[in-house]
Each structure stands twice: as structure tokens, then as C-alpha cells.
Amino acid sequence: MTGLARPGVLRVGDQVRFDGGEHTVVAIENTSVRLLGADGASRVVLLPFLLADEDFALLGADGPGPALAPTGLLEAAPAEALAQARFWERHVVEIETGLPPDSPPGTVPRPGYDPATTTLAERQRAKAQELAAVGRPVGERTLQRIRSRYREQGLLGLVDQRTMRSSSPTGRTDPRVVTALLQAIGEETEVSTGTRARLMRRVERALADEYGDKAVPLPSRAVLYRLVDRLTTGRHTFGAATTRRQTANRPTGPFTPSTEARPGEQVQIDTTKLDVLVVLDDGSTGRPELTIAVDMATRTICAAVLRPESTKAVDAALLLARMLVPEPMRPTWPHALAASASLLPHARLLRIDARFAQAAAKPVIVPETITTDHGAVYLSRTFTDACRQLGISVQLAHPGTPTDKGVVERTFSSINSLFCQHVASYTGRDVSRRGTDPARRAAFSLPELDDLLQEWVIAGWQLRPHAALAHPFLPRRSMSPNDAYALLVASSGYLPMTLGPTDYIELLPTTWRTVNDYGIRIDNRTYDAPELVPYRRQLSGVSAQRGRWEVHFDPHDVSHVFVRDHRAGGWITAEWTLRKLIARPFSDSLWRQARRTVAARGHDDTDQARIARALDDLLQRAGRRPHSPRPAVPEPHLPQVRLAGGLPATGAEHFDEADADDAPLAEVIPFGIFDPFSEEDYR
Fold first, then answer.
1. Per-residue pLDDT reduced to its tens digit, 639-683
2. β-bridge partners, 45
3. Cβ–Cβ < 8 Å for 346, 529
4. Domain match, 408 and 533 both
5. Number of domains within the chain
6. Please, what is the Cα angle at 608 between 590 and 584, to 5 degrees?
7. Is 336 exposed, middle or buried (0-12, 13-18, 19+ CB in 10 A)?
8. What pTM was computed for the model?
């Protein structure tokens, strides 16, 4: 039969099953097939449509033709069972066609097997007699069943299926024991790593509580150990707890990587603590928090913000603002880091945005979509309002699924390995890799470390080739973020987004306060300005806030606040009334620490004058390097001065209060307040 040799060939006269019925192929022309149904109806069907139909099958004299042998399943069969299957295949094919398989051309069928002179039943009867003569007796009905399996499944249908059965991973263990084991293994995910013995005791207690004491037979200890090893494969049940939790957090569905065709199409933002110790404002050491935004298309670190403690919503909002403006060149940076000396299309960008004249070699990327986790910072109203005002959509990652923002997670690891480990106070990623007292090596303040980090981003990260960045025409060459940006910006273009001083103020956190006779009170600090005089004891007109006034403040510099003028429009800058007592800006967290210090001394922690003195003392002590010896007496050549508010100050590392009355008074000019409105001309 031709059907055995070429099961996939469709010829005129063949019987096919299509659209729920049997049809005869009466004509084939190009890609069209004319079918004649059993009811006499004729229809023309396109050949691709016919072959793609789920019900299609090529029928032989006794039904569908033989299927192609599944090679993969045949390789899993034992050699002895496969040899037996090929033995039966040889005899079945000879019954069907008159010749054994792989017969050379011109071979003549043996007597009794010639299809031209014998019927199929006669050949089957002859084959049964032949097998009985050689000691393999088989009935004709058995031969018919073998032929039927061969037609339906090919060679695989002749393999003894008992040898193909896959063994259960749990063997003959009671299913109740397996269920209890799986439940106990799942409960190990969030607890500290234990031993197999502890797991088995939990399983025994669970079975006893549910079914009764010794109601469920347990296998031997050796069998139970082997079963535990099989069921915990890949779970790290008895390994590192962090690895076990990370494995459990993997998504169950297939991982589909996202592709970005232009800068800013997808930006990921996240926060983590750096493995570095810095000297904080109060003189202590601590690990700062780093918040970064990474562009998916170019792997550019669009912006990076270092904070001494928990990142606030305003930090994330100001991170957006830093992304939208070119990074200015700092005085200590070499000219090689300038955008004009890089591979960025500086000339074309300069014609669009004049701010690139003094910019560093880092692209300006305006995000379209930002992916964040469910941290309180990114769910806050301050951050979401900032994104809405800037036209940025926020996409939240799935809870407990770090793979949703894997690029920024991997970038943090690169920062620790490429930057942090080269800093003197590097702590290592865990306590097992930490050196002896790294706090003694802390030599950089937070602004100094931030300056080093920003320079490394431009000089190191932006110019470093990344394996994930490759051009379709240059698949073997890895590109740097600046290279990728130069290629993509040529096709996507660049539109600058200009932010003025008032835009930065809008990004700051908001509170609502009453303008009293003494000014505005926030956290026991009093703010006042001459422009607030007409509004004392007046309502703002905002009925939803009961007439209170809108106040914006920077948590990292609370020496002044911005009050919205609901009458005349614009903003009023109100200074802290005791600002002259403090010689430098201070943060809200440092103010709270000063309040705790005052309370610990048994004084009133609402007295802002007393808090200001404690705050000044903190800032004075913070000016000394940690662990530096404190001199017994003040240096004679360093002048000692007293601030206008009465607080002592000195250029030395120590001030002896016993000499305070004899020290000459000097007028100290405090640092000026940053006034964003003075830069209105640059908008």
C-alpha cells in the first residue's frame, strides 16, 4: 500500500475526513482541492485550509493512515522492547504491502503475500501460520489488533506499553503522607532553615492531628528521606533562607521580557541601602539610601539621589525633576566628562536645548512609564501627583515579584560591585563579608560620597559596555548606555521639558497651616516673613481646608518654607525665626534628633530656642571626623567666636565653655537661603 510509504501525500481518489464527514478527492489544481462528499455534494477547498483543519485525516482502506513515529518517545523505550516492536513492524508491513520494510527495488513478494493474487485476510492467515512454525504462535485477531495499533500510532503502537510507564516520584507512599509532606515543605518558606528531622516530626504531628495517632502508616526512615529529597528538589528547603524565599517568589507563568524601542518608554525606580558607611550630619556613621531611575532601553542611570535615612516621597518626586534637566558639569570634573566631548549628539541636542552647553555626558530622558514597587514612598500622594503633573504613567510591580523590575535590581548589584567596594568604608553585602569595624574607615560625608557617585555614573557607568545592549546590525558588539542613546535618539527624537522654580516648589510635600500673629508654626518651629503681615489671622479662602494656608517645605532643609499666596498668587518664602542661631541648613530628621536630646536632658522639647542650641551642638560635633581624638584644650591659634544668638562656635574641633565669657564676640554672617525665584530668568 502506498499509504504506509508516504502517509503525507494527497492524491486524486484518496479518502479524507474533513468538516465532520468523509470526502473523496476528485481533483487537485494548484492550491485548490475539489471534494466529493458521501451525500454527492461537491465543494472546493483551499489546500492550506484543508490541511490545517483539526478534523482532517487521510483515510486508507481500513481507516486513517499510519502516523509518523514519535522519535522522542521511541528513544525513551527500552532497547529490548524497541527490538520487539521492530520485529512486529516487519511482519505487519509485509501483511499490508506484500514486502518487508526496506526491501530493495525489484524485490518480488514471497508466495502467499502478493497483493495482486491474495487478499488481506489470506496474507494475515499465512503470517499467523508462519509465526507458529517458528515458535511464535499468534492468533489472527491478535494480528488484526497489532495492525490497527500500527495504523493509529506507528511503531510506538507496537511497543509494550508496560515498559513505557513512568514511575511516580512518590512511589507507593500513602497519598496522605505525600500531601502532609508538601504542606510542611511549603510552610518552610518563611521560617528559619531547619533539618529534615524537624520536617518529619512536623509531618507526624500533622497526620496524628488530622487522622489520629498512628492511623496513617509511615514508610521507613530511609524511604522517607529519599521522598523528602525528591519533593524538595529546587526549593532550597534546607539551604539558605534568602534563596528559598527568592525561589518561592518566582512567577509561576512564563517569563516574557519586555522590549523598549525608544528612551523613556519604560523607566524603573527603586531604593536600597548602599553597602558603604558615611559620616552623617550629627557626626555618627550610617548606611545611606540610594534611589535611582534606570531607563530600560539604554540602561542609563537617569538620576541618583543619596539620603542619610529613609527616603521620603519628596526625594522620589525631586528625582523626577533631576531626570528632566541636563546634569551640569561640576568644577572638579575633567573636560572629558562633558557632553561636548562624548559620543552623544551634542551639537543637535544643543540646538534644541541650550542647557546642554555646560552639561555632562549623561542623556536627558523624559520617562513615559515608570515601574515601581508598592513602597509607601511611591504610593504617596506627593509622588503620584508629581507623575501626573509631568504626564508620566505609574505601573506598579506585582507584590513580592522582583523580576518585574529586574533591571534596576541588577543595577544596584552593579553599583555595589563596581563602585561601593572601592570606597574605604565598604561594609560588604552581609555580615559574613564585613571587615573589622568599617565605621573607623568612614572618611566621606554624604555630599562628598554623592559627588563621587555622580562622577562615577558619568565616567564609569555611562561609558561602560553592557552585555544587554546590542544593535541588530552589530550583534557581537556590546554598547554603552551613551552609545545606545545616540542610536535611539536619532529615530525617536528629543523634546526638552523645562521646569521653572515654581515647578520645583510644587513637587515638595504640602501641609496646611494658619497664619497667626507670630507667623506659621510647624513642628515647634516658627516661620515668618514681611509678606505674611497682611494675612495674619486671615482666612485663605480655601473652604475645604477650613481657611488654612497651603505651605510647601523641603524635609532636607527646613530653614525656610514656601507659602502659597491665595490672594495675589505666587509664593511667599518664610524663614525660620531662629535661623541666625544655626550656621548651616539642617534636615527635619536632625531637628527631631535635637528634640529627643532636649527631652533626654529633662527639658521642655517644645522650646525651639533650647532645641536650636541642641541642634547647633549636634552640627558642631558633626564637623569633627569620627573617632578623632578630642583635644584637652582649644588650639591657641584658632579664634573662638560667639554667634549673634549666643551659641558658642569655634573653628577648632572643641570649644571650652569655661572660656566663653572671655571670648571676643564677633558678628557671624549666616549662610544665605536658596531662593528659587532668583533664577526666574533662566526658565
1. 333 333 333 333 333 333 333 344 444 454 444 444 444 444 333
2. 33
3. no
4. no
5. 5
6. 45
7. exposed
8. 0.58
